[in-house]
Automatic annotation (TrEMBL):
The keyword Hydrolase applies. Belongs to the patatin family. The keyword Lipid metabolism applies. It comes from Musa troglodytarum. GO terms for molecular function: hydrolase activity. One of its GO terms (biological process) is lipid catabolic process. Keywords: Hydrolase, Lipid degradation, Lipid metabolism. This is Patatin-like phospholipase.
Amino acid sequence: MSSRGFLCKVFQGRGDGGIVMSMEAMERIMKEAFGDRLTLCNIVKQVLISCYEPQSFFSLIFSRANALESESFDF
């Protein structure tokens, strides 16, 4: 899949489903592109990923170091 095609799928219109629909679409597109083979443990360089959970308004931080220490952090 070309990067342009991938980005077009990710950022195309949300439709009637709003945020929930776009989150489901994002997850589906990411799984199509990467499958289950790409996790934090597979990343070569150190990385820190910050994200925001919109339903609970909770911010989260994931790191490669956490993924190496515990399987429960290997997303």
